[in-house]
Structure formats: C-alpha cells, structure tokens
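User: I'm new to structure prediction. If I give you an amino acid sequence, what do you actually give back? Let's try with this one:
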Amino acid sequence: MKKAIFPGTFDPFTIGHASVVKRALTFMDHLVIGIGINDSKRTCIPTAQRVEMIRELYANEPRISVDAYDCLTIDFARKHDAQFIIRGIRTVHDFEYEETIADINRRLAGIETILLFTEPELTSVSSTIVRELLQYGKDVTPFLPEGMKKLKLRKE
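Assistant: Good question. You get back a string of structure tokens that encode the predicted 3D arrangement of the chain. For your 156 residues, that looks like this:
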C-alpha cells in the first residue's frame, strides 16, 4: 500500500491544499493530512478546529485521515508508516526550500518527497492571504473548499 503524509499548518485549509489532496489520491492508496503544531507560528484557527474542519471535509473519503503532530515531520511519517511526503509548490522560492527539506528527510529517514506544482489558477491562493482577509472581515469562501464550515478567528 502506498501511503503518504501531506504536512502543513493549514491555517486555513484552502482550495490549493484541496487540489493537492485530490491529485495525490490519484497515485496514493492512503493520505494522512498532518497538521503541524509549530509554536513559532502564530495561528488564527485553533489546532483542534483545523483538525475537525478537515476531517468533516473528507468524512466520506476513507483513504484520507487527519492528525495533528508536534514532532519532526519524518517522525510523524514513521508513526503513520508513510513512505512518502507530499508537498505543494507555488513558486520557485517554495521549490528551493522544499528541495532542501526533501534532501534532509531522505538522508535521515529514507522517506521520499513528492512535489506537486500548483495549478496555475491557484498560485495566488495562500493561507497567509486568506488569514489576512479573515482578519479584516472579508469573505474568503472563494478560497476555501466547498463544504468547509465558516471560519472564525481565535479571540486573543
């Protein structure tokens, strides 16, 4: 069985992320969406809510599971017996960063990274931009997968 993880913060999970998931399922038997907990990143949506929202989105897809993690991505992959890491690439900058991480992950754990280039119409969609729009009360539904419940920002 070909199993991969798709790691990220997913704050929030966008149509770009959903596109990567859909495409990965064309060649993977199982995909674990891993929501990384990174204390150095300031998130707007609590981790538990992100997990719940993505689980609800894929509730009818048995080949997808969702889990949060606060360890190295390679350790998360090992925990789930995944042979691959899936990453989406929007820009050349993304590629350079992901190439370095992929090399390290392969050397440390023998886990291959598969890079999926973003579809051209989705290259401008990023969680950072969607978060900023949310902070200013703008409608972000065009950037979220259908079926995603309404997002609420964490009150700080």
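You can read the tokens as a compact description of the fold. Here is one thing that stands out. The longest strand covers residues 30-36.
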